[in-house]
Input
Amino acid sequence: MKQIKYLMVALTLLFIQPAFAHHGEDPNFAEYNVALGVSPFGGSLNFSHNISHKTTYVAAVGGIDGIEMDLGIDGTDYTVGSKSAWVGFFVNHRPFKNASWFRVVGGVGFGSIENELTDADGNRYRADYNDNPVGYFGVGFGAGTDKGFSIGFDIGTLYTSGPDVSQVDGLENKAAVESISNHIFFGSVLPNAQLTLGWGF
Output
């Protein structure tokens, strides 16, 4: 997938570039950070290593055991049950010296997102994301490199190969499978937003 290839090249350049600003003898600089996050794909535990005021490496593990919501697709109402489990590796880069609260974020994730859709007649369908890796690109605000409490907010997009959509129970309905496949909620590009609360040390 071209998007993932481009993202991997960009991440490689970020990893190999020298740090533009080293923390030097800054007594308030936190070399590490541990944070809890919440996003549409579940809660997460995040471990960060600040190699400078500009660049941070992040490893995260997260997921959600199961949530339910109602979703209408082409005139049919579905109850959607979702669960996910994933790990991710990211690079945070702060490109502006006078705006260290702003971050550009790129990374990759490995895991799965599983969705089961049930209509009013009891017909069941699945829309599962199982292909790996998944690319991520976004921007972030906050979650700096100082010691002590930190708060961050990130928005971005996940780049996937799309879900495998199938019917698993009920009368065969190819039109419903196609409608689910074409719905924006089950696209190959998924929006993401995450709030994190952490502690730098």
Observations:
- The CA atoms of residues 41 and 63 lie 6 Å apart.
- The longest helix spans residues 2-16.
- The chain has two helices and ten strands.
- The longest strand covers residues 55-73.
